[in-house]
Design goal:
Order of helices and strands: HHHEEEHEHHEEH
Number of strands: 6
Strand order of the largest sheet: 1-2-3
Length: about 190
């Protein structure tokens, strides 16, 4: 019985995250567990539980926890400037705590220049085709700083995700002072 409830909760999470293939796989598992528990006896169909509705199987405590989780997802990631560094503040599902990644402005500029030089406005590009990204001193920008900058550019609507195909650079978003405008729009972290 506990396995079925757990599988049902996983399916609801999958539906909430639009992961329909995963939901179908989990539904097959749930059907298998049901057959093991009941044998060949017929079982009435289970009515799906609409999200955010407290039922007998969902305690108010779990519903409140899910609401907090959704609120946290909306708050993260967020970006701030700490002096001359771009800071990504994220939420770790595994550790259930906030974390930070930082990239110096030079790394952000190096990636933006590299991106503008290799990706045409409106055309799909893959990150694998852009890596490694040279830094301003001839070395390489660490991959986590490249992906941090990409996440920031996505949030700033300078880059758009195109499903599994890759990303699209928005028209002229990094040209003619565009990066400086985006940088200055990021909130400065207070002391």
């Amino acid at each position: 019985m506990g396995a079925e409830v757990s599988l049902r909760e996983l399916m609801e999470q999958g539906l909430g995250q639009h992961r329909y293939t995963d939901v179908a796989v989990i539904a097959g598992m749930a059907e298998g567990v049901s057959r093991l528990l009941l044998g060949d006896r017929a079982r009435p169909p289970v009515q799906p539980t609409p999200p955010n509705v407290a039922t007998e199987t969902r305690s108010p405590r779990k519903t409140a926890k899910k609401a907090r989780s959704r609120t946290q997802k909306r708050e993260y990631p967020r970006f701030e400037r700490d002096g001359d560094k771009l800071v990504k503040v994220g939420w770790s599902k595994k550790h259930k705590e906030q974390y930070e990644h930082r990239a110096p402005r030079e790394a952000v500029i190096a990636f933006a220049r590299h991106l503008a030089g290799h990706a045409r406005d409106g055309e799909v590009f893959a990150m694998e085709d852009l890596l490694p990204v040279p830094d301003l001193s001839g070395g390489e920008v660490p991959a986590y700083q490249v992906y941090l900058t990409l996440a920031w550019l996505r949030q700033a609507d300078a880059v758009e995700k195109k499903g599994r195909d890759g990303y699209v650079l928005r028209d002229r978003s990094l040209a003619e002072g565009g990066l400086d405008k985006l940088w200055n729009a990021v909130a400065q972290r207070s002391a």
